[in-house]
Amino acid sequence: MRPDTAASRRRLYLLARVVVARHYRRRLTLPIVAGALASSPRQLQRAYEQFGEQSFHEDLLARRMAAAATLLIEQPAIAVADVARLVGYRQPSHFARAFRHRYGLAPAGFRQVARKNATHRRAATPSPGRS
Asked: 102 burial class (0-12, 13-18, 19+ CB within 10 angstroms)?
């Protein structure tokens, strides 16, 4: 492979990661992102294969799941169905299945466990000024 090919493919990969990071809430597919970057889906796929640790789809899923976990923990007032929408899922059931596959718990169960762990951490941490 020519050096300029590798450099342009790496640039394509990095730009695609930026698009995924900024727009994961939207409907994103390999062809949509490739088109936004004036590339072909196959070239983008090759860029992910060469420079990424995961595929485009896995990258998008990881970004969405990390954002969902953060929302579930930090925003307990937001319903799970709304979290699903906020991270790019149109069907809450698809979100719940993907989340359970990723974390081993349903979103609501994940939230409960995180809440319990936070309560236990606060109870175990000494108050400032006390020894």
From this structure: middle
Contact (CB, 8 A) for 30 and 45:
yes
Domain count, the chain: 2
pTM here is 0.84
What are the tens digits of pLDDT across the range 14-67?
Answer: 999 999 999 999 999 999 999 999 999 999 999 999 999 999 999 999 999 999
Q: Is residue 56 within 8 Å of 16, Cβ to Cβ?
A: yes
Q: Show the domain range for 116.
A: 56-126
CB 45 within 8 A of CB 56: yes
Query: Could you tell me which of 51, 49, 50, 23 has the C-alpha nearest to residue 37?
Result: 23
